[in-house]
Amino acid sequence: RKEVEQDPGPFNVPEGATVAFNCTYSNSASQSFFWYRQDCRKEPKLLMSVYSSGNEDGRFTAQLNRASQYISLLIRDSKLSDSATYLCVLHTNAGKSTFGDGTTLTVKP
Amino acid sequence: DAGVIQSPRHEVTEMGQEVTLRCKPISGHNSLFWYRQTMMRGLELLIYFNNNVPIDDSGMPEDRFSAKMPNASFSTLKIQPSEPRDSAVYFCASSLLRQGTGVQPQHFGDGTRLSIL
After folding, report:
1. Do A101 and B107 touch (CB under 8 A)?
2. Are A43 and B42 inside 8 Å of each other by CB?
3. pLDDT tens per residue, chain A (109 residues)?
4. Which residue of B has its CA nearest to A37?
5. Contacts of A98 in chain B (CB under 8 A)
6. Which residues, at least 6 apart from A38, have a Cβ–Cβ distance to it below 8 Å?
């Protein structure tokens, strides 16, 4: 079993839809969590940090559930420009990072 | 502010040749990561450094791969000899690891697109 599991998708949604991604992890030593966005042939870019108390940034909401060992990303009122691959990443306190394989989102007119 | 700088952006070489990828992290960052990304295997952590010291190189595929960080502003990833299966995009990333507050987000360079013929 992979240390980090993501549904690869693709998720194909119309503009304005709400879409949610989950990322499950098995390493209970994971301490820091982030969502990244990667566009085709580009580098991953930080989207937002993830906290147990939740984190909202405009149309994006991230949540951490330590008991069930998963993190989530919710995108409301999706835009064409949200089309990308979304990667979750976990860090241990020693700094080791593990990325998920990514979930591909396509928002259509 | 300058981000993470990688060179070269593209590299095409024949199998058996030595390949050296370079990375300059963001000034002030104390952690540096080398990743490899392919369609089949996704984004894989090869090795990471804290304060110029290699902490975990368990992701390095085999002895043909080596990485160094001689100072806080420079790192190299070397493949010798290169093979066609090494073709991938190689990313370098840096971040700040603070005692007590944990890991800060990583910032990625543009990557090196490596093709081994």
Report:
1. no
2. no
3. 778 999 888 899 999 999 999 999 988 777 789 999 999 989 999 999 998 888 999 999 999 998 999 999 999 999 999 999 999 999 887 778 899 999 999 999 9
4. B108
5. 45
6. A44, A45, A84, A85, A86, A87, A102
Q: Which single residue is written with the structure tokens 């090795």? A: B47
Strand ranges for chain A from DSSP E: 4-6, 11-14, 19-25, 30-38, 45-50, 55-57, 60-65, 70-75, 84-92, 97-99, 103-108
Q: Cα–Cα–Cα angle for B11, A46, B106, nearest 5°?
A: 65
Whole-angstrom distance, CA of residue B3 vs CA of residue A12: 33
Q: Do B102 and A43 touch (CB under 8 A)?
A: no
Which tokens hold the place of A43? 């580098």
Structure tokens at A61: 């909401």
How many angstroms separate the CA atoms of A52 and A23, rounded?
Answer: 14
Residues in chain A: 109
Out of A32, A98, A101, the one facing B45 most closely (by C-beta) is: A98
Q: For B33-47, write each residue's pLDDT tens digit.
A: 999 999 888 899 999
User: For the segment B19-35, what is each residue's pLDDT rounded down to a tens digit?
Assistant: 999 999 999 999 999 99
The answer to whether the beta carbons of residues A47 and A60 sit under 8 Å apart is yes
Choose among A32, A44, A101: nearest Cβ to B103: A32
